Amino acid sequence: MARLTLPAIVILGAGALETARRVQMLYAGSQVHALQGRAEADVSYPELRTHLCDLYARGTPIIALCAAGIVIRCVAPLLSNKGVEPPVLAVAEDGSAVVPLLGGLAGVNVMAREIAAELAVSPAITTSGELRFGTCVLNPPEGYALADIAQGKRFVSDLLAGESTRIEGEAPWLDDAQLPRSESARLAIRVTPHAWDGRDNELVIHPRSVVAAVTGAGVRSAANADLGVDFGSNADADTRSTADEAPSACSGSNEPTHSGVQIAALVREALDAHGLATLSLAALLASADHMADPALAEAAVSLNVPLRFAQPRPEDGEPPSNVLHAALRVPYQTLHDDADTGVALALAALAIDPNTIGRARGRLTVIGLGPGSADLMVPAARIALNEATDILGYETYVKMAGPLRADQRVHGTDNREEMQRARHAFELASTGRSVVMVSSGDPGVFAMAAAVLEALEEGGATNADWRAVQLAIVPGVSAAMATAAQAGAPLGHDFCMLSLSDNLKPWSIIERRLRHAAEADLVMAFYNPISRARPWQLDKALDIVREYRAAATKIVLGRDIGRPGSTLRTITLGELRSSDVDMRTMVIVGSSTTRGFANGVDGGEWVYTPRWYE
C-alpha cells in the first residue's frame, strides 16, 4: 500500500538525533519531532503521549526512537480498527533494533524493512502470515483494494492452519510468495473488479480498473458554475445564489443540477447494475469545462477516488463516453453509457494509475511559514508543502520551507519579482500541478497572498484555465504576532501594522497613516523599518510618533524571532534610536496604556496592553 502521508520521526532526546536523521533520509520531506528542551529538531512538542496520540489520530505514520513499551502505552487507548490504523514503529535510539508495532495493513512491515536496511540490522517482524509466506496477503499493492478485512483475516488464518489456495486473476505481486498452492484448493485468492458475493472461501481483491465519467445531467454547466471569484462584477450574494441554482446548460433541460451526493449515487447505481465493486473504481472523470464545480469534488470524496478531467474533442463521439475517449490511454471496454443520467463506465484489463487519466484540477496554495521555526508553522502549511509538485517563492523563504523531496520542483526568485512569481504559479497550476506559493509570516500580511489575488483578478478575467485553479490561502504566524507573544501581549488592544518601505507606496502616505495611527493611540507594529537604501525613514517615523506619545512609551524590538540567534529587547520611545534597528527587526510601539513588569528572568519584563481604557 502506498503511503499517502510522510512519517513523523519522534525522538525524546539528543542521543537519538543522529539515528533520526539517517531515517529521515529515507523519507524526503519528513520531519524530526523532538521533546522541547531536550534536542533541536524540525518540530518541537511539549509532551510525548499527547503528541503521539495526535499524530496517530491524524493518520500520520509514526517512527518513534524510544522503547516500544512507551509507544504502546501512549497510543493503546486509541486502538480500535486495524483496517485504518497508520504505521507505527519503534526504533532503538542507536539504530540497533526496528520493531513494527501497528499498521500491518498500511505497510508498516515494508517501512520496517526499509529502515532496517538503512541501519544495517534485521527488522523484528512478528506477523505470522508474512513470516510464513514472505508477504502480507492482506496488504495488496497500490491500485488494488481488499474487499473485506474481516474475511481476509479468516482466510489467512485458514492458510496458517494448513489449507492451500489457488489464484484467480492477475496478482503478479504474489508470484514470489511462498503460498501453499493447489489448483484444486477450496480457498481462492480472486482478483476481480466484480463485487464480492460473501463466500467465505475467497479472498477478494479488487483492481482499481474502472473509471466513471460524469457529464450531461450529472454535473452543472460551466456557464452557471460559481467559480468563487467575481471579476469586475458588483453582483451581490442573492445574484450569485440565483446563478448557483440555474439549470445545467449541458443537460439541455430545466432540471435542477445534481449535488455531489446525487452524482456519487448515480455512479454507484451504474456500478451495481454491472455487478462492480465501488472499490474497483480508479477515478471519477468529468469534462474540463466543469473543473470548478464543487459538486464533483464532493462526489469524488464520497466515492473516495481521485477527480480527473479531460477536454473531449468532436471526434470523440457523444457524451458521456466522449470524456472517456479523451482521457484514457489504455485499452478498455465501455460497460455503461447513459445520456439521461450522464454516467459512463469504462473497464480496463488491469489496475489503472489515476495519474495517467486526463489531468487533475490544478491547485495553488499560498502559505505562510511563520517567523522561521518549524514548530510555529501551522500544520496545514506543512501538509500543502508535502503534497506540492512545485514550490515558488523568494529564494530565502523557499530554503526555509525544507526539507523538500527530490521530486519537487523549486522555483526560487528574487524578492522583488512578486507579480511575475504569482503569474508563473497560475501558469503551472492551470496545467494540473499542485503549486505552493511560500511567504514568511502570514501570507496576507505584506506578503504574497495579495499579489496572487491581483494576478488572478487581472489574468483570470480572460483566462478560464486560471479561474479553474483551486486557490487556497493558509494563514501563518506573522512576525508581529510572534514578537508580541515573546514579549507578552503588547497587541492586546487595538493595533495596526504599517510597512515603512516606500518601494510600493509614496512616503507621504506612510507619514499620513503614521500620524493618524499615533493620534488614535493605536499600538503600532512596524514592518520593513529601515534599510541601507533608506536609513532616514525610521527616524522620521519616530519624530512623528513622538509628537503624540510620551518618552516612557514601551517599545518592543524583536530581531529574527523564531530563527536562530533571535533577540528580544524592551526599551522606551525616548531611548529608541534607529541604530537599534535593522531590516530584520520588528518594532512594536506601545500605546499610552501599554505597560510592563519584571518577568524574573535575566532582568527582562512582560509587556502588555490592557483590554480597557481609563
TrEMBL record:
Signal sequence, renumbered to the chain: none
Domain Cobalamin synthesis G N-terminal: 52-129
Pathway it works in: Cofactor biosynthesis; adenosylcobalamin biosynthesis
Keywords: Cobalamin biosynthesis, Lyase, Methyltransferase, S-adenosyl-L-methionine, Transferase
GO-annotated molecular function: sirohydrochlorin ferrochelatase activity
Region spans: Disordered: 236-257
Tetrapyrrole methylase domain residues: 363-576
EC numbers for this chain: 4.99.1.4
CDD domains noted in UniProt: Precorrin_3B_C17_MT
InterPro entries in the record: 4pyrrol_Mease (IPR000878), 4pyrrol_Methylase_sf (IPR035996), 4pyrrole_Mease_sub1 (IPR014777), 4pyrrole_Mease_sub2 (IPR014776), CbiG_N (IPR021744), Cbl_synth_CobJ/CibH_dom (IPR006363), GbiG_N_sf (IPR038029), Precorrin_MeTrfase (IPR051810)
Pfam families the record matches: CbiG_N, TP_methylase
Major enzyme class: lyase
PANTHER family in the record: COBALT-FACTOR III C(17)-METHYLTRANSFERASE-RELATED
Protein's UniProt name: Siroheme synthase
Provenance organism: Paraburkholderia haematera
